[in-house]
Design brief:
By secondary structure, this protein is an all-alpha fold. It has a domain at 68-213. Helices cover 64% and strands 0% of the residues. The chain has helices at residues 7-23, 43-66, 68-103, 108-111, 117-120, 122-130, 141-159, 164-180, 206-213. Helix 2 (43-66) packs antiparallel against helix 3 and helix 2 (43-66) packs across helix 7. The protein is globular and about 60 Å long. The chain starts with 6 loop residues before the first helix and ends with a helix.
């Protein structure tokens, strides 16, 4: 295992980001040619899958050479950084969009993203943001990474070299159970739970695609 970046992963992640950008543009003809129309998963799910490959390349060497504790410590350092940047981003968006809503006298600036809850109940919204339960719209990707890296990455890097087939079985079982039982993590603003959630990330939402096609 080397410390060099795998340019193939970087290329595919860049392509996935391009597809995600195209898919978020309303009435965009190019969206008919992105991955979500042909594959089992859409570009966002592929991007997270590739992030998993990158995590293995980044941390597996520490787990193998320095042991589980040292490897897990490196992962936790990364989780801490992502968590702090997520809170900073939420605070920046909440303040900026609230100011825009007042300045332009248009509450949709804050309501569309979901940061209006900070003005309605600041203490509760801040607490839920700190516990990742309050996820404003478009700010739900970093919480996904936090949960996956906090719980899943150390477990995978511990079990994978010892029992690779068991690791595959556990992963597939978690995905299947989460889909069958509709398991999700709680969300303050979405009754159905996290919009981008780690338990069944790879599951294609055929109902959503059907609605788009109508």
């Amino acid at each position: 295992m080397t410390n060099e970046r795998d340019l193939r992963i970087d290329f595919l992640r860049g392509l996935a980001l391009l597809f995600i950008f195209i898919d978020h543009i309303p009435d965009n003809g190019l969206a008919h040619f992105t991955l979500r129309n042909f594959g089992f998963a859409d570009a966002a799910e592929v991007f997270v899958l590739l992030a998993g490959f990158s995590a293995v390349l980044a941390y597996q060497r520490s787990f193998e050479r320095e042991g589980f504790r040292a490897g897990a410590a490196r992962v936790m350092d990364r989780v801490r950084d992502i968590y702090l940047w997520h809170l900073a981003l939420v605070a920046f968006c909440a303040i900026g969009l609230t100011v825009a809503a007042v300045w332009f006298e248009n509450p949709m600036y804050s309501h569309n993203i979901g940061v209006h809850v900070f003005g309605e109940s600041p203490a509760a919204a801040s607490f839920f943001a700190a516990t990742l339960i309050n996820q404003p719209n478009m700010l739900n990707i970093l919480p996904l990474y936090i949960v996956l890296m906090l719980v899943w990455v150390p477990f995978v890097l511990w079990l994978l070299p010892r029992r690779p087939w068991q690791m595959l079985f556990v992963s597939a079982s978690l995905w299947l159970i989460a889909n069958l039982l509709q398991l999700n993590l709680p969300s303050q603003q979405a009754p159905q739970g996290w919009g981008v959630q780690p338990l069944r990330l790879a599951a294609p939402d055929y109902r959503w695609r059907a609605r788009r096609a109508l």
